[in-house]
Amino acid sequence: MRKIFVLVAAAAALTAAACNTVSGVGRDASAAGNAVTGAAEDAKN
């Protein structure tokens, strides 16, 4: 029973870490997109 609890706790920790990583990648991609949009607007003007 204790082994199952440890495995479930480890899986939950890994899942939480993966969500944070994906969230960080999303923010980075969004920032890069904003930079490209800003550069395109500057080039247009």
Automatic annotation (TrEMBL):
Residues 1-18 form the signal peptide. This is Putative small secreted protein. Keywords: Signal. The keyword Signal applies.
